């Protein structure tokens, strides 16, 4: 048993014997995350090895990890307790007029009996907890570690999610980084730790292997890197916590300190302030009772006032202000483009549903405008979008489709009202507000170039759909290519990566998901266990995507992959309702895979750059190129 990678010093002023003096503690290496051997504390008494029993509590452990030069105690507290009890016995003997004898030390043995009884009770408790935990796992179901291991999946790295905790300060945490974690292969009554190395990363979760197991994966286990019980190497030494080798391998080495010195010198560990960074990254500025403007989920063309009811991991449960029973709610991330400060709608000319409530309710207050996500400033004074221009857009009511769309209204500050051709309501209640820089709108021809299925207007019969013919028939023009957002960040996503994603048709749900296609910055998200018709097109920087382990970290409920039986049993559930709702907005589908070509559309010559393949797209290419005359 070690009290940290470096031995912990002990003040022996209370001991009557010089034998109880301890080795001085070495300072925590200042150059973390690189572990160094400072050469001061990794020494052993000659000829002292094997196992030992603590004379205070009876705990059995590795002898060379015990305290005092004689290795009689398992911890600092036992050494001090022994010394204190010995003094009490001696004082009692003197008060009785007798010289101190060995018999007087019987008093210090009494705690051992109590501790042994407590230990037996502790072991029984552990067994009961293990049974309970096992039952809970079998009923609650999903485990990311088992899911990834059994299928050899790869998860998207935390650095892909800038809005998620630690997304911008994850650093170079990778395989072979060493950490100190609880030792679960141990029968001791107190929590002890051991050093483990990262074998594999999956989002916030790491597959760990205890030091000393070499290539034996028998006791590998998954642990959240951001959990409260995972620490950089050296934490135990600084905190006075014992390091105990796993019971399975405790006889493998006789000199554990020398083994650790050899294994850890020069290795990487977590930064010393890692847990502080985790805590800071999980502080959110939005608070309950804040008022915001948010899209009206029943009439997408307008916004309403809503109040923040709760905040979980940066996700907001918003309750529409007029909801008396507080059940009319809407979920979104605090960085969502769907929420705005009070007064936003009036400032840009967006439709707004006035509340019947004439004054703010007690305790409610307007959210400061600076807390909302900023949009890129645009110059509308020159060539700009105009009403009636055609484009392609992700259908907000059926996110698995990209549709033929029209600009219905140009608002201030670069915002546009978009309608889906052939599916619009007569009163425009299903128009949707996109910013001109939104990654959800595309120029004419985007789908054809990137071999994406374009959904034509509902009822349009001239198939396959051709933009040239459609523009001529409708007397329309295509929105200029140069007005669209062509920025493509180096996002790091790859096809096949696992993640946790919001079902935007039921935004309270976060599901196990997979990236199945990548078109520059556009990701095709598939919900594991569901049919492809429920897939959704999402931007790579969407705040509705999260790393594996995000739900566990924040305490949000994760929806596991749907099995065939559950899909059949839920035929009348929300997923089926979503399908029914979205069908009324779907046009006839037919994949068009026309060859790359140049077409003259209303006087402008467009030569589109074909998208990179799904497997090779890394965010380095543009969506399209306009060829100057």
TrEMBL record:
Residues 1-33, 561-591, 608-629 are annotated as: Disordered. InterPro entries: Mbt, PcG_chromatin_remod_factors, Znf_FCS, Znf_FCS_sf. Residues 610-621 have a biased composition (Polar residues). It is found in: Nucleus. The keyword Cell division does not apply. One of its GO terms (biological process) is positive regulation of double-strand break repair via homologous recombination. GO terms for cellular component: NuA4 histone acetyltransferase complex; nucleosome; nucleus; site of double-strand break. Residues 575-591 have a biased composition (Basic residues). Keywords: Chromatin regulator, Metal-binding, Nucleus, Repeat, Transcription, Transcription regulation, Zinc, Zinc-finger. The keyword Cytoplasm does not apply. GO terms for molecular function: chromatin binding; histone binding; histone H4K20me1 reader activity; histone H4K20me2 reader activity; zinc ion binding. MBT repeats lie at residues 142-246, 254-350, 352-457, 465-561. It holds the Pfam family zf-FCS_1. Residues 1-18, 563-574 have a biased composition (Low complexity). Residues 45-80 form the FCS-type domain. PROSITE patterns: MBT, ZF_FCS. This is MBT domain-containing protein 1 isoform X2. The lineage of its organism: Eukaryota, Metazoa, Chordata, Craniata, Vertebrata. The gene is MBTD1.
């Amino acid at each position: 048993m070690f009290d940290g990678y470096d031995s912990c010093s002990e003040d022996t002023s209370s001991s009557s014997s010089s034998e109880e003096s301890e080795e001085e503690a070495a300072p925590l290496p200042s150059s973390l995350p690189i572990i160094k051997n400072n050469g001061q504390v990794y020494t052993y008494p000659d000829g002292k090895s094997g196992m030992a029993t603590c004379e205070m509590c009876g705990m059995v452990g590795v002898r060379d990890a015990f305290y005092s030069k004689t290795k009689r105690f398992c911890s600092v507290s036992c050494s001090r307790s022994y010394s204190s009890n010995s003094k009490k016995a001696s004082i009692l003997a003197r008060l009785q007029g007798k010289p101190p004898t060995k018999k007087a030390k019987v008093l210090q043995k009494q705690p051992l009996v109590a501790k042994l009884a407590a230990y037996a009770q502790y072991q029984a408790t552990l067994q009961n907890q293990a049974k309970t935990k096992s039952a809970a796992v079998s009923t609650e179901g999903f485990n990311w570690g088992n899911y990834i291991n059994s299928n050899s999946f790869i998860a998207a790295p935390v650095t892909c999610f800038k809005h998620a905790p630690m997304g911008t300060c994850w650093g170079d945490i990778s395989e072979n980084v060493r950490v100190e974690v609880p030792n679960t292969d141990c029968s001791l009554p107190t929590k002890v730790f051991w050093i483990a190395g990262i074998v594999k990363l999956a989002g916030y979760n790491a597959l760990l292997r205890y030091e000393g197991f070499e290539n034996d994966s028998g006791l590998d286990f998954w642990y959240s890197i951001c959990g409260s019980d995972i620490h950089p190497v050296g934490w135990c030494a600084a905190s006075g916590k014992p390091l105990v080798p796993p019971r399975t391998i405790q006889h493998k080495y006789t000199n554990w300190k020398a083994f650790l010195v050899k294994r850890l010198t020069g290795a990487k560990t977590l930064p010393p302030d890692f847990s502080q960074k985790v805590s800071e990254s999980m502080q959110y500025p939005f608070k309950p009772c804040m008022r915001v403007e948010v899209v009206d989920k029943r009439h997408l063309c307008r916004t309403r006032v809503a109040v923040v009811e709760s905040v979980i991991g940066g996700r907001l449960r918003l309750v529409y202000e007029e909801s008396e029973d507080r059940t009319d709610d809407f979920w979104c991330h605090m960085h969502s483009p769907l929420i705005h400060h009070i007064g936003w709608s009036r400032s840009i000319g967006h439709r707004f549903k006035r509340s019947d409530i004439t004054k703010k309710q007690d305790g409610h207050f307007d959210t400061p405008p600076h807390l909302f996500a900023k949009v890129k400033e645009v110059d509308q004074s020159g060539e700009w979008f105009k009403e009636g221009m055609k484009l392609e857009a992700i259908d907000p009511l059926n996110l698995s489709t990209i549709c033929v769309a029209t600009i219905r209204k140009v608002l201030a500050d670069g915002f546009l009202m978009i309608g889906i051709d052939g599916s619009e309501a007569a009163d425009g209640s299903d128009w949707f507000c996109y910013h001109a820089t939104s990654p959800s709108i595309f120029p004419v021809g985007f789908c054809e170039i990137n071999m994406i299925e374009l959904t034509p207007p509902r009822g349009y019969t001239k198939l396959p759909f051709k933009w040239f013919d459609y523009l001529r028939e409708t007397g329309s023009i295509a929105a200029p290519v140069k007005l669209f957002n062509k920025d493509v960040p180096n996002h790091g996503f790859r096809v096949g990566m696992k993640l946790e994603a919001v079902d935007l048709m039921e935004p309270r749900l976060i599901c196990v998901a997979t990236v199945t296609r990548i078109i520059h910055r556009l990701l095709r998200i598939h919900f594991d266990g569901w049919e492809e018709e429920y897939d959704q097109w999402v931007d790579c920087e969407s705040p509705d995507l999260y790393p594996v382990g995000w739900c566990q970290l924040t305490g949000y409920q994760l929806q596991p992959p749907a099995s065939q039986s559950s899909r059949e049993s839920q035929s009348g559930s929300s997923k089926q309702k979503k399908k029914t709702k979205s069908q009324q907005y779907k046009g006839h589908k037919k994949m068009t895979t026309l060859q790359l070509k140049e077409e003259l559309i209303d006087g402008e010559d467009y030569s589109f750059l074909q998208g990179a393949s799904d497997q090779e797209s890394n965010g380095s290419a543009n969506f399209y190129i306009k060829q100057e005359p």
